Each structure stands twice: as C-alpha cells, then as structure tokens.
Amino acid sequence: MGIVVDERARAAVNRRRSRGKDARLVLRVQRLSPKTGFPDAAVIGWTRVEPPPELVEWHARDVKFFVEPRLARYAEVRDLVISAWRIGPWERIVLADPYLMLRVAEWEYTHAKTLHSAPARLTVQSQIESAKHLPAVDPPHSPRDLHRR
C-alpha cells in the first residue's frame, strides 16, 4: 500500500525533470468552504519551495512527495493513485480517485480508535457532555414576543 504513480504521471515527472525543473510533489487537504459545508478536497501539485515541516516526506520510486499526515496515514493502508493528463502544451498532475476525501473520511470514521485524533463526528458526544456544565442561557424570543412589547 502507498502512493502509486501511474505511467502518465511518471511521464509528466520525467518531462518536468528534462526541462530542469524540480519534480517534487505536495499532497495536501484543502478546506473548500467551511460556511457552506462542502467537504475537504485532496489537492496535489508541484512545489518549488521547501514545504512546511508538518508534512511527511514520502518516496514512490524516484518521485518525492510531501504529504499531509492525514493522507499519509490513509496511504499506509490504502493505495493513492497519482495520474496526469495532457492537452497540447498543458499538463496537469491529478489524483486518480475524485472521491478520495470521502473515502478518507469514511476510513477515519471506521478506524477512529486507531488514530491519534478522532474525526469531528465522533467528538460531538463529548462536546455535548462538556456543554452540560455551562450556565443556562435564556432561549431567544420569538418574533411574536417582539410585537407584544
């Protein structure tokens, strides 16, 4: 199990190296929009600068990755397939599974006891328990109460 680089992605890496560019890749989780409830998205891209120290260094043959710990834990038990597409001069490195983050969330949910940090869905009960100790607050008045005053 681990990160698998398919033939298209390997060809993209080799083309990039032949032009003298750095072929290191960063695989991270991007929060799309916390206000609208969209799920997180896994994003992959080339890096030119030194990545943050919290990312895990991962090697897939001759390709070097810097992976977010959440995805690295998942990659230890499941395959993450990296691919690429090319249209004329435009080339893009992509994740082969568009539903990767849904699969990661499902895996985290079912294996929460083995992970260091539980997913948010599993900590809701503990938040409810801790909220019981907070002082009581009057509920907001209904619009009808405002008209009576």
Task: Give structural notes.
The protein has 149 residues and is α/β, with parallel strands linked by helices. It has a domain at 3-98: Hypothetical Protein Aq_1857, Chain: A (Sandwich). The chain contains five helices and seven strands.
Percent range for β-strand residues? 25-35%
- Uncertain spans: 118-127
The strand order across the widest sheet is 3-2-5-4
Largest sheet: 4 strands, mixed
Shape: globular
Q: Residue share in helices?
A: 25-40%
Q: Please tell me the CATH architecture of one domain by its name.
A: Sandwich
Radius of gyration: 22 Å
SSE-based structural type: alpha/beta
Output mean pLDDT.
76
CATH topology of one domain: Hypothetical Protein Aq_1857, Chain: A
One letter per element, helices H and strands E, the order comes to: EHEEEEHEEHHH
- How far from one another are the termini? 67 Å
At the first level of CATH, the class of one domain is Mainly Beta
- Structure summary, number of beta strands: 7
By CATH's scheme, which homologous superfamily of one domain applies? Answer: HesB-like domain
Number of helical elements: 5
